[in-house]
């Protein structure tokens, strides 16, 4: 029985998971510098130990209502092509192991060309976790725009 580890994060009251092997680091919120003429979901850029990293608001990308940043707000940093990219989330507080047999394919209602970032649904006792691949959240065009920011 194989297990995978997922970093669990929250947006609003929903739980999402991303494969821990895809996550470079999780850091506390840092105020970003706004960059003009960027897509609406780009929060800005930050300096993370000498590297300029674009920050993407998953709330904006998922068309959720914006919320005030608080002490739980985190940035999940991944490697996207040759760049580091940070994803702004409400909270990222735990790593969970999920058995492969407790992961089901994403329902057809949420899949499609623009939803290829949903890799499955993890079942955990009394809740479900939508499993994402953050590398596929952006379209190829959006990735090009992000590379220009970096």
From TrEMBL:
CDD domains: CheW. Residues 3-143 form the CheW-like domain. InterPro entries: CheW, CheW-lke_dom. PANTHER family: CHEMOTAXIS PROTEIN CHEW, CHEMOTAXIS SENSOR HISTIDINE KINASE-RELATED. SMART domains: CheW. This is Chemotaxis protein CheW. It comes from Crassaminicella indica.
